[in-house]
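Whiteboard transcription, Tuesday session. T.W. wrote the C-alpha cells on the left side:
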C-alpha cells in the first residue's frame, strides 16, 4: 500500500511540470515549460491581434478560449513555482499524517479511503480532460475534411489558432504542425488536470484529518469506549487541531491567487465557448463544432466547480469540529480539559476556507455566480454579433 494520498499520476505530473521542489530535474522542467509556453503564447496572441477585426468572429472567439486556458496554466505553474516552500510544507505534513496514524485502525481506515477516493477522482478528471482534447482535435480535423474551401494545406484550420512565422504550403508541413500542436495540447490539458487534482487531493486529505479529530473528540472521554482510547489526550487533540489549521492555511496561501485568476479567466473562457456553441446551431457544420466544443465547455465548468466545491467542502468540514467538541462528554472531564474543549469550540467557529485572492470565499454560490456572469456575457456577445 502506498503511504500517500497523492496518486501516481498527480505525483508524476507535479515532477514533470517542475512543481515538486528540491529535486535535480525541477530547474530543467521549469526552463522547458517557460520556453514552450512563452513561444506558443507569442503565436497565439499574434493570431488574435491579426484577426480581431476579421469577419469570422467565431474563429477569433475559439482561439481566445484556448489561448486563455493556456495562459491560465502558465499562471498556475508560476504561482506554484514561487510558493515552492509552502508546497514542500504541505507534502511534509501529509507524509507525517500517514506515518503517525498508520498503526491506528480507524485513522488508517480514513486515510486509506481518502487516498482511494482522491486517486479515483484524479483518474476521472484526467480521463475527461484527455477525452475533451481528443474530441476538440477531432472536430477541427473533421471541419477541414468536410469543407471544400480547405483543400489546400494553408487554408486549413489548425488545432490551436496560431499565426506562425512560416507558410504551411505542403501536406508534410501541415501534418507536422498538427502533430506538434496535438502534443502541446495534450500536455496543456494534463497540466490543468494535475493542478486541479492536486487541490482536490489536499482538500480530501484535510477532510479525512477532520474526521479523525471528530472521532477523537467523540470518543476520547466517553465511558462507553474501551480504555485503549486513553492514549488520546487533550494535548493530542489540540495538537491535531492546530495541524489541521496550519495545513488548511497553507493550502489557502498556495491556491488563493490561482483561484482568483481562475474565476476571472474561466468566466471569459466559458463565455467564449458558450457563445461559439450557440451561434453554431444554425451553421452547416454544427456537428463538428459541437464535437470539439461540448466537452471543452464541460471541462472548463468542471474546473471552476472543483475550486468552488473545495472551498465549500472545507468550510462544511471545519464546522464539524465545533459540533463534535460540543457533543463530546466534556461535562465528565476535569475542569482543565473542559476549558480546553471550550477553546477548541471557540477556535472552530472561525471556519477554514479557500478564498479568491484573499477577497471572497469559494463556495457553490460563487460557482453559480460564475455561470450567471458567463451567461450574461454570452447575451452581450450575441447582441453585438
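and on the right, the sequence the group agreed on:
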Amino acid at each position: 500500500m502506498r503511504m500517500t494520498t497523492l496518486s501516481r499520476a498527480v505525483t508524476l505530473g507535479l515532477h514533470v511540470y517542475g512543481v515538486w521542489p528540491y529535486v535535480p530535474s525541477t530547474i530543467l522542467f521549469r526552463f522547458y515549460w517557460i520556453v514552450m509556453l512563452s513561444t506558443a503564447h507569442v503565436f497565439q496572441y499574434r493570431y488574435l491581434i491579426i484577426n480581431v477585426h476579421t469577419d469570422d468572429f467565431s474563429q477569433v472567439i475559439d482561439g481566445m478560449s484556448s489561448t486563455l486556458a493556456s495562459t491560465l496554466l502558465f499562471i498556475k505553474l508560476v504561482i506554484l513555482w514561487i510558493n515552492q516552500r509552502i508546497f514542500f510544507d504541505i507534502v511534509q505534513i501529509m507524509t507525517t499524517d500517514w506515518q503517525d496514524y498508520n498503526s491506528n485502525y480507524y485513522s488508517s481506515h480514513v486515510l486509506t479511503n481518502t487516498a482511494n477516493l482522491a486517486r479515483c477522482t484524479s483518474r476521472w478528471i484526467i480521463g475527461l480532460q484527455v477525452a475533451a482534447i481528443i474530441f476538440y482535435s477531432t472536430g477541427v480535423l473533421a471541419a477541414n475534411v468536410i469543407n471544400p474551401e480547405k483543400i489546400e494545406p494553408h487554408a486549413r484550420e489548425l488545432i490551436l489558432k496560431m499565426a506562425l512565422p512560416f507558410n504551411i504550403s505542403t501536406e508534410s508541413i501541415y501534418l507536422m504542425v498538427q502533430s506538434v500542436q496535438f502534443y502541446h495540447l495534450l500536455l496543456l490539458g494534463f497540466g490543468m488536470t494535475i493542478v486541479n487534482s492536486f487541490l482536490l487531493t489536499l482538500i480530501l486529505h484535510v477532510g479525512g484529518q477532520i474526521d479523525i479529530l471528530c472521532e477523537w473528540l467523540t470518543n476520547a472521554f466517553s465511558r462507553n469506549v474501551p480504555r485503549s482510547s486513553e492514549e488520546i489526550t487533550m494535548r493530542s487533540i489540540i495538537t491535531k487541531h492546530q495541524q489541521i489549521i496550519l495545513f488548511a492555511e497553507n493550502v489557502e496561501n498556495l491556491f488563493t491567487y490561482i483561484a482568483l485568476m481562475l474565476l476571472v479567466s474561466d468566466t471569459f473562457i466559458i463565455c467564449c465557448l458558450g457563445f461559439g456553441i450557440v451561434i453554431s446551431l444554425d451553421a452547416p457544420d454544427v456537428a463538428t463544432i459541437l464535437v470539439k466544443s461540448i466537452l471543452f465547455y464541460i471541462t472548463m465548468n468542471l474546473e471552476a466547480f472543483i475550486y468552488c466545491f473545495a472551498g465549500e467542502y472545507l468550510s462544511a468540514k471545519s464546522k464539524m469540529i465545533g459540533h463534535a467538541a460540543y457533543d463530546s462528554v466534556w461535562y465528565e472531564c476535569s475542569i482543565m480539559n473542559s476549558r480546553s474543549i471550550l477553546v477548541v469550540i471557540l477556535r472552530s467557529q472561525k471556519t477554514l476556507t479557500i478564498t479568491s485572492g484573499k477577497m471572497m470565499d469559494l463556495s457553490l454560490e460563487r460557482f453559480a455566480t460564475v455561470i450567471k456572469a458567463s451567461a450574461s456575457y454570452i447575451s452581450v456577445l450575441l447582441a453585438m454579433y
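Someone added at the bottom: The longest strand covers residues 355-356.
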